[in-house]
Amino acid sequence: MKEKRWKTWWERERGTCLKALLLACLPVIACLVYCAARGQGIGEIYLPASERNDELIYYKQVEAILRYGYPQGYFGFNESHALKLSFAAWSPLLMLPWVLWGLLFGWNLMSPVLCNIFLLTAAMFLFGLLAKPDWKQLGITAFLFFLFLPFSWYMLCGMPETVCFSLLIVFYGAAAGFLRKKSGAFLGVMFALAALLTMMRPYLFLFLLLPAYFWIFGVNGGKKEISGGASRNPAAERGFCRSAAARWKPVLGTIVIFGATFGAYAWISHFLAAEYFRPLFDMHWLTAFFERGLAGGIRNFFGTLYYSGLEFLRYMRQGMESGLAAGSIFCCYIVALLVLLCQSLRDLGSRRRLKAEGEEPGELAGKLVLEAHLSLSFAAMLGAVLLMCNFHDGCKHLLGFLVVGILVIAGMRTQYFKKAVLVGVVFAWFFFYHGAGFEAYEPDFWNEETARRLELFSEAVEKEMVVTGDFVPNYDNTVIWVLADELPQGMVYTGWQYLYSLPAGFGISCCGGDYVTEHFETLRSRYLCVVPGGPIEERCLQTGYEKIAGNEYAVLYRRY
Q1: 491 φ, ψ to 5°?
Q2: What is the DSSP string of 17-79?
Q3: 74 and 509 in contact (C-beta within 8 Å)?
Q4: How far apart are CA 66 and CA 88, in angstroms?
């Protein structure tokens, strides 16, 4: 009997499985092609060759978790540290998939890259099984996937953005599954993934709104509602077609889920996150209401939007003229937003016309909810970037929305592929054809000189540095990384890449040069990594600090 069920399932779903496998191949093929275009292989990716210092912080935290359970020294900024344990400014949940990967396969400089590729591969496979795209939709997805260069770039670096991308892809697969089957299991998966995403990146709470809408209002898939909350049609109940009287339980349940999610995020942010150089989000637009009153707050709100909007347009112009990475992402984001808005309005008109003719909108109702929700999420996130984020860092937070935008655009009804071609042309222009676009996403490959210097640095560090202390975390196991120092030729950044050589468990506190200069006599961390030949190194020598390792880019001292 069991074999018969499996055979029946396979005969029914083998086409879906084939499409899911093809989708799963996209990340691997994209990475192989991306590297081959530079004459390299995936195995040649080398994190210490990168210029993105966030990768170091994430990598060393995971390494410490795998060795000790949590870092034995403090990760932070200007010697700040979390109230509990010793993590940096961002949610440690972002690193959870990497920790699991490290437990299974070990942890080395290639581990984040391999884990990222696996995560996106698994996510695309699950999306194929859950969403069941047709061949046309699969082709559009593949077309846009290869042209959206950040997909490949983030897989091939040590940044955890791929974790969010992957969870969002599975989230939309579950949404498509819910629209097809109206099953509470899919709704539960959506709530769980959206809650986890919110605890990783708080602005992703926007995706909690979609399962909440489905649960409270339902989707009219062709079944008629029964008033009074009691349905005489079991299919209507399975379809989550709720009357007003039946909505109070989902409303209460949604409030509980939202409260638990935001409570968990607040706890993580308060206890497990170190204070950053500056607030991660600029909330002056909100505090102005308390400082200046209602009228002053409103003026400040719209003034902030106006001047931020001008700056946003300036970034977009630079993206079109010179290939500025942030401006290019903004341009792609606006185009995707306009496509989603236009399709939402078009489907809303079609839905009204069908209802006026006495017909049920059927599948169109569900697609309209997905498109309208994502349109509003795009607009809300754009407003948040204008109000709270600096544009240089804020652009990367838009990428997750673009990822799911690709999936929704690929699922739109189309005859001549106008929407997909428009978005694809925009991607191709900014990420490939444009002069600076392709170079902005250059992978970091192994080079002999960096590897040699890191090896020499590691040999010296291993002899001199050992995790110590009966009570951990502590500052004895913490290295101050002086971000930059002023030399005659100008501001020079410390070669932080050589801190990959630190023994597992050590914490890294990224400190501004002005902080170190001002608090030099009262610094708490035991070790100090500085710019060679700078004023801070001169003070280290005058004070008699012990040199542990050094080269022309970074020098590591022991203070006591």
Answers
A1: -75, 130
A2: HHHHHHHHHHHHHHHHHHHHTTT--GGGB-GGG-S-THHHHHHHHHHHHHHHSS-SB--EETT
A3: yes
A4: 16
CA distance 107 to 67: 10
* Three-state SS letters, 229-274: CCCCCHHHHHCCCCCHHHCHHHHHHHHHHHHHHHHHHHHHHHHCCC
- By three-state DSSP, how is residue 306 classified? helix
HSE value, Cβ hemisphere, 13 Å, CA-based, for 550: 15
- Let me know the angle formed at the C-alpha of 163 by 158 and 164, rounded to the nearest 5 degrees: 125
How many C-beta neighbours within 10 Å does residue 16 have?
15
The amino acid occupying position 466 is V
Positive or negative: CA dihedral 480, 486, 487, 489? positive
| 235, 236, 240, 243: CA torsion to nearest 10 | -160
Task: Tell me: cis bond preceding 473? Omega within 30 of 0 counts.
Answer: yes
Instruction: Give bridge partners of residue 510 from the DSSP assignment.
Output: 77, 481
CB atoms within 10 A of CB 266: 12
pTM of the model: 0.91
Q: How far is CA 503 from the centre of its chain?
A: 28
In this structure, what are the phi and psi dihedrals at residue 500, rounded to the nearest 5 degrees? -60, -20
pLDDT in tens, the chain (560 residues): 566 777 776 777 788 889 999 999 999 999 999 899 888 999 999 999 998 889 999 999 999 999 999 999 999 999 999 999 999 999 999 999 999 999 999 999 999 999 999 999 999 999 999 999 989 999 999 999 999 988 889 999 999 999 999 999 999 999 999 998 888 899 999 999 999 999 999 999 999 999 999 999 877 643 433 233 344 444 444 445 566 667 788 899 999 999 999 999 999 999 999 998 777 677 777 778 887 888 888 888 888 888 888 888 898 888 888 877 888 899 999 999 999 999 999 888 888 888 777 777 777 888 889 999 999 999 999 998 888 767 777 788 899 999 999 999 998 877 668 889 999 999 999 888 775 656 677 888 998 999 999 999 999 999 899 999 889 999 999 999 999 999 988 899 999 999 999 999 999 999 999 999 999 999 999 999 999 999 999 999 999 999 999 899 999 999 98
Check: CB of residue 144 under 8 Å from CB of residue 409: yes
